[in-house]
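Workshop exercise sheet. Pairs work together: one partner reads the sequence aloud, the other fills in the structure field after running the prediction. Swap roles for the next sheet.
Pair: D.N. / O.F.
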Amino acid sequence: MYRPLTSRRSVAPALGTFILASLALAPISARAQAGYRQPPAVVAQILDAPSTPSVMLSPDGTRMVLLERPGLPPISEIAAPEYRVAGIRLNPRTNGPSRQNPPQGISVLDLGANGTPTPRKLALSLPREAGINYASWSPNGELLSFAVSTDSALTLWVADLDAMTARQLTPRRLNASLGSPCEWTGNEALVCTFVPAGRGAEPVRPQTPEGPIVQEALSGKANRAATYQDLLKSPYDEAIFTYFTTSQLARVPLSGAVTDIGTPAILSGVSASPDGKWLLVTSIAKPFSYTVPYRYFPTKIEVWHPDGRVARTIASRPLIERIAWGGDGAQPGPRNPAWRSDAPATLTWVEALDGGEASREVPKRDRILALAAPFSGEARTLLETEWRSRGVTWGRADLAIAYERNSDERLERAWVIDPSGKRAPRMLWELSTEDRYADPGNFQTKRNEHGRSVLHLTPDGRSAFLVGTGASDEGDRPFLDRIELATGKTERLFRSAAPYYETVVEILDDRGQRILTRRESVTEPPNYFARDLVRRIAPRPLTAFADPAPQFANVTKQVVQYERKDGVQLHATVYLPPGYDKARDGALPFLLWAYPQEFGSAEAASQVSGSPYRFTRPRGSSHLFALLQGYGVMDDPTMPIVAKDGGESNDTFIEQLVASAQAAVDQLVSMGVGDRDRMAVGGHSYGAFMTANLLAHSDIFRAGIARSGAYNRTLTPFGFQGEERTYWQARDLYERMSPFMFADQIKTPILLIHGMADNNTGTYPVQSERMYAAIKGHGGTVRYVQLPGESHGYAARESVGHTLAETLSWLDQWVKAPKPKM
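Structure field:
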């Protein structure tokens, strides 16, 4: 159990009160194992508040479903028994994913009425612990399907949103071990994956070893692989994976008379054609692998008749253990199979023309193919791309938008293509993926009669719509544009304006005259509004979500820009605690929380992101809670790592990292709000890696907080982040960038926190374990906190509360007090 820590006095707006509240967090001995700790009451109160509902708009835009989400889940749920096999985590009780914290209620808003609509509560008779998963609209938007999870099963339900009632379609147990278990096939039925009838008892773990585990590599070919986690490790793991992932596909009409389709198999993907007459089925078979996740296991991609007969085998792929490396590497053979959303039954997929090896010099790298029902004959090539294909937005028989990307050069192209083949492809744009200022936005889609997303075109068919962030030197200002596809000419229809940050969620009519937006300001929480762009009247509020953390109402923030010594422009958001007065309170202790990012040019690195008009409230184990304890926070100070003089970005990683940190501290000091002698730095994952490096290579900070990091790059020898060189190609770089190699230089106090069940590639818990031992062994000041059951991010209420208690205690112990004069 976690136990609350109480502050000495109640919270008030004055800064001094927030400083006094932190006194409840007295440091504890490194040997003390006293269970979960609680942060101060003002923080705990926010953690215990329910979450803001998530939103689902109906296909016709007339209704909005609110999924009512609970607060943080208890540790009993996060640390419940699970199986970690083949790259997935299974809940053996439900035959679905583990670590869920699903919504527990459904409300509906009818958007057609004037004024702010009143939510109507869906009548649901569910057990207290039940949750709602995988909600999905029927194509006509009249029904909502969802799975109800209990302690022992997932079952299929459907809600009638006119009658506001819901019922269970079948008591059969769904199988969601490899993804969403159900999909609509028209408005009258769904296809679902179920636990096979008569499956038998779960495999029992052997009491004695079955024999040695043997792996081999005999091809003589290089076979670099990422440091995947949760892989198969034994024949018993194989049996568990097979047992829980084997499904029976079935058709479920609204009458509930379930009809099985085919025989049980490991089904990793099932998708109905838009007209509901065909099924795209992806299945997995042995031999399995102990070095890669299940998605690389032998795979068969087939088109089935509704009764399970195979109409066409698209691919039968063997086990892949030699994975193409780099941002432009790809699987050989057919990949990304999907239905064309604008056609009744046309299958599309991509094939690599270079075998998936981006290092090969070829005139064309990919081709996009299509094959229509009844799936006989040869597939037709729609487009060959010079770079790697990155998807298609389908519009109509003669119009689609196709994308390709060159990751190494950080470039992307968009093409207007004619799927009928009557017109040649035409490039719409080519741009740098790093150039946020030139980003034209993303094409908007709408639902067609089959409930599938297609390009939203104007009634004359000549124009489409783009929604983007509107990044510029003044920050992000989201926009809606109409683009003429023949010329590329755009017209601005809407742009967010101060003092609001307003994004376009949906276009509500064919002409782009009515839109749904999500609006917020520094003082107003995000809510949904209907806007009329022709009449230009005040937007109509559709929701009235309250401030989830009013304790932050008097926090002030400012987006600041400053310069690194090499001329690179940097920016950050500076937060000041409630009640802070610079003249009265002077310079504050500060926490800088950051995450490095690689860039190909200084110009791209200097671009501003974010907005001064966002409504900011902390969630989970956010570093922003330090504001309630009398600290200033510099959030996301940019730490760009820029390629220089024809080299790679990481060639000067340490130098650029230190220079960016120094510039950030100098900026706070120049503003008169930050005390240079009371600075802390922290980060999560790559930000934790950054933190340890800054403490090893500079004396800028009084303390560091590193969560779930990787510190020894020789343990990720085949690349990390954007670094594609291997350890054996760049030994000096790997060692120079590894703070573990400089643990003897880390004398600044550092707090290491890590989830004991971290499954993120590269950030094994052993990274923090070894880092702690190295710093401790050299006389450094270090505290190492292991969170039972937690993965890369921390989810349980107890874990989140403890993380914040540890963080605030560490700051109070090592940063808050003025630095002694020498």
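Discussion prompt: The chain is about 15% helix and 35% strand. What would you look at next?
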